[in-house]
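Exercise 7 asks you to align residues with tokens for two separate proteins.
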Amino acid sequence: MRVSVVQMNSGADKLANIDQARALIASAVEADRPNIVSLPEVWSCMGGDRDGKFRQAEDLPPPGSNLPGGEAYEFLRSTAREKRIFVHGGSIGERGGERLFNTTLVFNPDGTEIARYRKIHLFDISTPDGLVFGESRTYAPGDEVVTYEADGIKVGCSICYDVRFPELFLRLRQAGAELIFLPAAFTLQTGKDHWETLIRARAIETQCWFAAPAMYGPHKEGNGETRATYGHSMLVDPWGHVVAKVSDGTGWATARIDPELTHRIRRDMPVVAQRKLV
């Protein structure tokens, strides 16, 4: 299986973001012929104010149905069908009452939705440079661990801040995951110190491949403040090696997932069987 991670610089205009995603996916497919393409966290609406996020969010059809969805949902579905690939749709805003959900959607090459994951761990922190993030003011947490199968490989779902909570990834490994997606919009301040370290640690602990498509660069908040995301989208193997990475700016990277390497690492270091504390 060949996996592409797409790096975007989205803003608060959903239709412009869809155009950007469409162009990057088309280029990745033409150049690298991946089996599965992935987008970053909140790629359809980055920044803006709370009201804007609600306007750009979508009411999702029942999972697995053929009922129509919103612009981002239909873009992901039609891309999978037209390109004959799996699309791991990063995450978009899903309407769900007084707060949104930060939701991953996955489509198979027939355009059928095969997985839906709501981000469990919400980013409510203060960074060392004094910026305050309160994701729970807009989003509600999910509560389900989600996996799916793509071309015979079991895939696990996670989003951004989830990476700091290893118990989720151990649950995904116990559920059979061999490849884990981590779409993200990591802040520049935290990303430069923690992004690669955390991904490599989770890959080593779980002996899974990691695919981490990320948001890059500046965006405007609703109050006019400019904030920056770190980028550095990457693919990491089960030994913790970075096998592909996107440079600064928008773009993509592609790597081949090798099940034989996964098997050898797990056979020679059987950490799941040896685990004493859970």
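Second protein for Exercise 7:
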Amino acid sequence: MTFVIRIDHVAIIVDDIDHALNFWRDALGLEVTHVEDVPDQESVVAFLPTGESEVELVKPTTDDSGISRYLHKRGPGIHHICFQVDDIEAALVKLRDHNVRLINPEPVIGTGGKKIAFVHPESTHGVLIELYELTPLEPEIRLARARELADRVRAQGQVVAANVLSFLRGLRDTGLGEFFDDDVRGDYET
């Protein structure tokens, strides 16, 4: 009896998400559904669904995180494969019964509220494996993170609009404003 439901995602460590998207999004045509800041992992993740799975592009946000150390030691590439399981506790018991070395002997709460545990590459022929069980909190946490991101983008957009308005007013005050008609200035007035 298997406890694996599906491959949830393949995580790929990159040093530049925008550059990586030239291949994954532009050349392959995968859509980026969202980009998420993951402070507890000191990373930013771009999510690109493909069928029932995802490719996750992971970029470290600090120089001393585990992901950053991995990137500096091994370079960009596949970091881990994540399997969704129906019961993570039972999966860990089965793996322990088979003398599999676990990084997380008990599940921890990971990104989005899901229960996760990592299996050491020593037991998997060199591949870091993540197991995850969906919890009822995950959709709520993802929605809250999406709202936080939308709020930050909206606030940054307002800052940009205010700066453009200030710039245009500065041009007007220096006499260069004659090159901008009232309709253009009106677009930036709040």
